[in-house]
Amino acid sequence: MTTVEIRASGRIVQLKRADKVLFPADGSAGALTKADLAAHYRRVARRILPQLRGRPLMLERYPDGIDGARLVQKDTPGHFPDWIRRSELPKAGGTVDYPVCDDLATLVYLAGQGCVTPHRWLSKADRPDHPDLLVIDLDPADEDFEPVRESARLLHDLLDGLGLPADLMTTGSRGLHVLVRLDRRAPFDEVRAFAHDVAALLAHRHPALLTTEARKAARRGRLYLDVQRNGYGQTAVTPYAVRPLPGAPVATPLAWDELDDPALTARRWTLATTEERLAAPDPWRDTPRRGRSLGPARRRLEALRTS
């Protein structure tokens, strides 16, 4: 097996077994190796690193390829180099030493460890109890993408009415994520309760299309508005991360008007096609960077719920 040396962030990172196949060839794409995965993360570094910096991570690793064993890793392994940042955070009965990816060298090293998908916390390590992101996952009942488009439009309109600018992204798996940037004043319990109330109001308005039922049997073919990621220690897929599925689909930021694109699906972009996205302007460039307070939005939401 080949070892490749990659210069990144002033370091030399060794990519061992670089020719190891992580994604076997299928009908839509050729085989993809660990070197291909590292090349993707180097290519998207300018856009993915701002989404990762300062955040504890859960690593979804496939050292023997996506057809092999899946390793879900939160605690930083002892063999990771000392220069990779750690964040020790409490859990029930102890602590977890989470990895944090602040630079390109760490990103490349993680790819070399077979980390196909980095999943990030919605808060940063310096204030782990206070998220700066709220996420609602639009989880469809089947492969029909039309309910996902319609739900995204409805949620966007509601959030806009609440004074909350939102970002949109494909998950690279089944649906879409809608994200709201927060000012880190509200703790997780408050953020999750707010997200639940937003989802409940939308489901109440559109009961034939949407549900907040966590049990699949109770959804009866409706799209599930999932807000469960808005909790301490929970994670969501990082924008521009690769998913461990055939063809190596990539979670990709969208502009809202791209919902009208008939070719749009949750797996529209892949490791092999993200370069065309990077050549275009960042679709999130116009979203205000300043996080919003939930106070005014909560008051507007209560007015809608009682009207």
Defining key terms:
307 residues, alpha+beta, six-stranded mixed sheet, four-stranded antiparallel sheet, 16 strands, 26% helix
DSSP summary: helix tally: 7
Biggest sheet architecture? 6 strands, mixed
Poorly predicted segments: none
Shape: globular
The first-to-last residue Cα distance is 66 Å
| Secondary structure: helix percent | 25-40%
> What is the tally of beta strands?
16
What is the SS-derived class?
alpha+beta
Task: Spell the H/E element sequence.
Answer: EEEEHHEEEEHEEHEEHEEEEHH
**Beta strand %:** 15-25%
The neighbouring-strand order within the major sheet is: 13-14-10-12-11-16
What is the typical, i.e. mean, pLDDT? Answer: 96
Mind telling me the C-alpha Rg? 19 Å
Write a structural description.
The protein is built from seven helices and 16 strands. It is of the alpha+beta class. Helix 1 runs antiparallel to helix 3 and helix 5 runs parallel beside helix 7. The longest helix has 18 residues. The model has no long low-confidence stretch (mean pLDDT 96).
Quick summary:
The protein is α+β, with helices and mostly antiparallel strands and 307 residues long. The chain has helices at residues 34-43, 45-52, 104-112, 146-161, 188-205, 274-279, 294-306, and strands at 4-8, 11-15, 21-23, 32-33, 57-61, 71-73, 85-91, 94-100, 115-121, 133-139, 166-170, 176-181, 210-211, 223-226, 235-237, 253-254.
Write the layout of secondary structure elements.
Elements: E1 4-8, E2 11-15, E3 21-23, E4 32-33, H1 34-43, H2 45-52, E5 57-61, E6 71-73, E7 85-91, E8 94-100, H3 104-112, E9 115-121, E10 133-139, H4 146-161, E11 166-170, E12 176-181, H5 188-205, E13 210-211, E14 223-226, E15 235-237, E16 253-254, H6 274-279, H7 294-306
Parallel strand pairs: 13-14
Antiparallel strand pairs: 1-2, 3-4, 5-6, 5-9, 7-8, 9-15, 10-12, 10-14, 11-12, 11-16
Helix pairs in contact: 1-3, 5-7
